[in-house]
Design brief:
Layout (H helix, E strand, L loop, with lengths): L16 E10 L2 E11 L8 H15 L8 E10 L7 E4 L5 E2 L11 E8 L8 E6 L7 E2 L2 E2 L1 H12 L3 E2 L8 E10 L2 E10 L2 E3 L4 E3 L10
Antiparallel strand pairs: 1-2, 1-3, 2-11, 3-4, 3-5, 6-7, 6-13, 6-14, 8-9, 10-11, 11-12
Helix pairs in contact: 1-2
Length: about 210
Amino acid sequence: MSQVPPNLLRLPPVEGVTKVVLQGEYFGQLIQNSLHYRRVGSGGAPEPMAAASRVITWWDANIKANVSADYKLTQVLATDLSANSGPGSASQAGLPKPGTQGSAGLPGNVAMVASFRTNLRGRSYRGRFYMAGIGEIMATGNQILEAFAAPLRTGFTAALTLNGPTGEPAFELVVVSYFGDKSLRTVPVVTKVTQVVIDGNLDSQRRRLTGRGR
C-alpha cells in the first residue's frame, strides 16, 4: 500500500522494500491490490520471488475460503523498489486460485475494505486493501456480516508478518508514503503495519464495473 501519486512523476527508490501486486479476475474485469513488504531484521536485499510466493501461500491459507468462487487470483507480481531498475518477479505458481465461498458474488464495484494501521496517525501512515468477491450471503444492506468479517479480519492480520521455511527471512507489511505536505518526498517514509481494521461497511470501486475499467 502506498499513497497514489497525483501524476506520472518518477518515484524515488524505497530502500529494502518489495511491492507485491495481486491481480485477480472478477466478472471479466481485472482487479488489482498492492501490498508492500520489508525483510524482517537489519540488512539484506529484498527478495521479490520469495515475497510473491509467500503472498500466494497467505492468500490460499487465509483469504480464499472467504471469497466467492466468481473471483479468482490469477497472478502475483513482485518488484524490488530499492532502485528504479530493481529486479522483479511474476508468479503464477498454483494459480489461478478461485475463491471457495459458495454464494454468487456481489457486483464488481462492491468491496470490503481492510484498513492497515501503524502506530502513527495521519494519511501517510495508513493503507487500504479493497477486496472484491464478496458473496451475496456474506452481506446485508451496506454491511458485511460479522460472521464473515471476523475470519477476514483474522486472515488479513496474518498478512502482517509472512514467515518462511527455517533459515529464510520473514517479511513484514509496511505502508510507503511518497508524499508529504503535497510534495514528493526525496526519501519515502516506510512504516510498519501493526493492526488491521475491518469495520464491516462495504465500499465501492466503480472502475471495477464492466465498461468502466479494463
